[in-house]
Amino acid sequence: MSKILVIAEHDGQTLNPSTAKTVACAAEIDGAEIDVLVLGSSVGEPASEAAQLAGVSRVCTIENASNEHALAAVYAPQVVAAAEGYSHVFGPSTTYGRDLMPRVAALLGVNQISDIMSVEGSHVFKRPIYAGSVVVTLEAPADVPVVATVRAASYKGVAEGGSAAIESISAEADLPDHTRYVSSQAGSSDRPDLQTAATVISGGRALGSEESFDIIYALADKIGAGVGASRAAVDAGYVPNEMQVGQTGKIIAPELYIAIGISGAIQHLTGIKDAGTIVAINKDEEAPIFEVADIGLVGDLFSIVPELTAALD
Fold this sequence. Notes:
The chain contains nine helices and 15 strands. By secondary structure, the protein is of the alpha/beta class. The longest helix has 14 residues, at about 95-110. The model has no long low-confidence stretch (mean pLDDT about 95).
């Protein structure tokens, strides 16, 4: 029987939705026993949330002062110590998981599997390559632990309703002295988080300036949407990096995605391919974005977007 350890992502107060999606992936393995590991300096609340996830057998917590900040170099040795006896170690394919899981794999001496999008067997998985244009099936060795990240956009989180036991464990590990927390800088917004929002509106380079992005924000605020951007808009300095949607940004799967002034480079399309409905607004009727859009509107965004915003009053 497969015994799977899912590494939880949280902010100290709330469990990130990516954890429930990672559990959903683990649950696709027949007969799997799923435990969740929560690391931090104080993890009572996120551990309680993890215990309510359907399909979770046990929640293990590691609390100590060294874990106050989520440093991959500090977490990885503890994850490896806690993973003894597990056949699989899964983490979300978010910024957090992409930072942590390769270190875990390296310490265990195994290759990491990235971006699992479906499970075909206990050691057989599908994942995208070449910016999502090709999906490959691969088989991991059965005699070593499987360390993998799960493509959150490919899964819906498991429901609540579980009642797993919460157990504090001690993972004896040598923590590194070459890494220390200095400071963090993060943007704050009242808008929904990009990776969990049901509706996302993104702007591209065609907006022309940081100030012009105000029309995107105004429309998003009308409908309670998250706001994203293409890599070109980020590189041009119109918006901060954390708003980037695409292969090298955030991969999202909202119910509705509205792309405004975005041509549709393959890097961007990779990040939105799992969206429910895609709407594109672009003055170039030959823009690649129209090939994947469910609804397309050809025209000047500086006329269309304000009109659309006004119509929502």
